[in-house]
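Cont'd.
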Amino acid sequence: MIKNLFRLAALGIIWSRYKVIIVSTALLVFYVWLVGSLHDDFVAFIELEDDKTHLAASFLTKWLAFLAGLIIYLAVITRIGRKPTVSNGDGETKAAKAESELTRQNTEEDPFADVRARKALRSAADFVVEGKGSGRKKK
Amino acid sequence: MDVFNRLFTRHRDWLRNKAIGRAETRILLAGRSPGDFTAEELEIVVQEEESKLKSELREKGLFGMLALLGFSWLG
């Protein structure tokens, strides 16, 4: 029972987060399969007809179709990674405005603003090694 | 990849905010306010809390994995 619940929860999380990626990958696989099948059929047909004038063109078309599918797939995948932005008409987006406002508030009031901005934090030992003192100047 | 970078950044921000929250609580419980400390002092406190959080998460993840596997390693 619990195991099934865990499974369902995990599947739900994966589906809700990666829905677009899963669907677009499945569509790409189906598209590649479809193009490959059509091409195989065409090759079988021209072998029966014994007329190989369009064989090279068919291979070229197949690989161009694969490439187009891949490009569309990558475009869809990279597009969903971007955050949706809403312009307020002044040229500045709402998201950018909110972010700048937040940064302003952070630097004005938040004593942790520097800590938030840092990629990696330094320990007391790091400060000692760097020769900037132990960081216990004001007590 | 872009997706992994975003996930990593989001996780790092979440961890940093949690650590800052804990550091703030610790400072307040000591009867002081974050404004009394220099940026370096705050960085040291938050760094300590962040490492504690990381080790806690690692521990929890290990126990979670063992629980999901049904503690089969115990026999």
